[in-house]
Every structure is written in structure tokens, then in C-alpha cells.
Amino acid sequence: MTEYKEVNTTHHESGQAERATTFKATQIIWLVMGILEVVLGLRFLFKLIGVNAANTFATFLYNLTGIFVAPFASLTGAPAAGGMVFEFSTIIAMIVYALVGWGLVRLINVLFYKPRGAVSTRQTIVAEQAPDLPVSDNSQTTTTTTDNERI
Fold this sequence. Notes:
It contains three helices and five strands. The chain starts with a strand and ends with a strand. It has helices at residues 16-49, 56-69, 88-112, and strands at 4-13, 80-81, 84-85, 118-129, 140-147. Helix 1 (16-49) packs antiparallel against helix 3 (88-112). A hairpin with a 2-residue loop joins strand 2 (80-81) and strand 3 (84-85). It is α+β, with helices and mostly antiparallel strands.
């Protein structure tokens, strides 16, 4: 017969739920910003290589991104040659929106992030059995608290 020990372990850490919520919020912001950057990048590329503006997908993309590029459209000129356009306004929009996304993430972290506090670990030995011994009905509980400070 082999020796075995059944142990239940639980961890409790103050602020863990708040950190998880803050992490999810920042991940959603980065996801939205990533999608916006990709569609703006496609717009820039399509304009640069002179994609046919009458194409359904190109029209959809230009209409979708036009809302985001409009505030920057009159900042600079857009050099064009043979149907190809280098849109500085799209590049400026991409930089500004990336900075806005970064700023929102930093603001959420400053306002809502909870630093790690003390971690409480509780271990309960439910059953312990050694070779040739009957199963023990005794249970033993050990509680440990550690302070993990984050700099």
C-alpha cells in the first residue's frame, strides 16, 4: 500500500478582484485601440497603393475610417501621384489614437489599481494514510500569512 495525503489549499489576497477588473478594462482598451490601428493602417496602405475606391470593401473601409481621420484631414496636404496618395493625416491619426489609448490605460491604472497586499494561505489536511495504517479521520489546519509588498 502506498502513502498518500489529501490536502486542500485556499489562497486569499486582498485587492485581487480589483486588480483583475483593472486588467480586463485595460485589455479591452488595448483591443479596441488595436482594431482601430489596424483599420487605419489598412486605409493608409490602400491609399498608398492606389486601391480602386469603387471597390465595395475599399468603400466600406474608407467610410468606416473617415470618421476617425476627419479631425486630422486638414492638418497637412496629401501628396498624390497616379492615383496613389500618401495620407499624412492617417499617420497622425494613428499616432494620436495610440497615445490616447496609452493615456487611458495609465489613467485606469492610476485610479483603480490596487497593489498586492498580504496573502493568506490556508492548508487543511483532510486525510493522511501511511502504509499498513488505517485512514485517519483527524484533520489538521495550517494558516500562513505573508506580506508581499510590490515596489
